[in-house]
């Protein structure tokens, strides 16, 4: 979406934009594809996962197309600015990633299966970029909501690194951090389910072509 020819650098908390105590916009009430509410509280029994894998337009579609996902929404996470706008996030002065919040039913799709989709849907070795999208907001990240999620994410990164290395790829640069203390700030209405509203719109999502060995459902029988 934006091609930045400068070398991206994360701001410090002191350098980051201050933001605002309330958002400048209203988030839609329901998902345009799944029909469920975007913002919680969510029904009992569902779990939340947060992923950043480049431009959030295409990333969100990957997850809403997955059986067992109850709702998805895009936003900004991992930085310092409160209630940022898209323009602020793209300036590189908020420290946020373009993130996707995935609300899912663990009885239908496991967190490990979502991790598999995450790894295979982008190139996690590129640092502050995804393809031609350059900037700190495009970095790869997983923000975990429990010790179990953190352990699964760490194990999946280790397993995927082995197959990436065997295929000639570089080191994974994905950051794995607790979601606690890193609020998810929902993005503007026009970003939510963007590729449903604009089927021919830009999608910068593309993987390495290397299959991830984690999150595979056990064989029956």
UniProtKB/TrEMBL annotation:
EC number: 1.8.4.11
Enzyme class of the recorded protein, top EC level: oxidoreductase
Superkingdom of source: Bacteria
Coiled coil listed as a keyword: no
Keywords recorded for this protein, A-Z: Oxidoreductase
Peptide methionine sulphoxide reductase MsrA domain segment(s): 50-203
Positions annotated as active site in the UniProt record: 55
Enzymatic reactions: [thioredoxin]-disulfide + L-methionine + H2O = L-methionine (S)-S-oxide + [thioredoxin]-dithiol; L-methionyl-[protein] + [thioredoxin]-disulfide + H2O = L-methionyl-(S)-S-oxide-[protein] + [thioredoxin]-dithiol
InterPro entries from the UniProt entry: Met_Sox_Rdtase_MsrA_dom, Met_Sox_Rdtase_MsrA_sf, MsrA_MetSO_reductase
Its job: Has an important function as a repair enzyme for proteins that have been inactivated by oxidation. Catalyzes the reversible oxidation-reduction of methionine sulfoxide in proteins to methionine.
Listed PANTHER family: MITOCHONDRIAL PEPTIDE METHIONINE SULFOXIDE REDUCTASE
Family assignment from sequence similarity: Belongs to the MsrA Met sulfoxide reductase family.
Protein name: Peptide methionine sulfoxide reductase MsrA
Native species: Streptomyces badius
Gene (UniProt): msrA
């Amino acid at each position: 979406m934006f091609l930045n020819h400068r070398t991206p650098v994360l701001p410090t908390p002191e350098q980051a934009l201050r933001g605002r105590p309330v958002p400048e916009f209203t988030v839609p009430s329901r998902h345009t594809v799944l029909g469920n509410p975007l913002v919680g509280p969510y029904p009992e029994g569902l779990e939340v996962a947060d992923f950043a894998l480049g431009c959030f337009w295409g990333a969100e579609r990957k997850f809403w197309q997955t059986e067992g996902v109850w709702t998805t929404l895009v936003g900004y996470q991992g930085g310092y600015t409160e209630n940022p706008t898209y323009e602020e996030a793209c300036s590189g002065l908020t420290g946020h990633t373009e993130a996707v919040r995935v609300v899912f039913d663990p009885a239908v799709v496991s967190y490990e299966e979502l991790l598999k989709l995450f790894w295979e849907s982008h190139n996690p070795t590129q640092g502050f970029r995804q393809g031609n999208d350059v900037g700190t907001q495009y970095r790869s990240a997983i923000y975990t909501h429990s010790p179990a999620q953190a352990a699964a994410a760490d194990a999946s990164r280790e397993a995927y690194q082995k197959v990436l290395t065997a295929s000639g790829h570089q080191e994974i640069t994905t950051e794995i951090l607790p979601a606690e203390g890193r609020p998810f700030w929902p993005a503007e209405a026009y970003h939510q389910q963007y590729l449903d509203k604009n089927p021919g719109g830009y999608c910068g999502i593309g993987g390495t072509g290397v299959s991830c060995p984690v999150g595979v459902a056990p064989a029956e029988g």
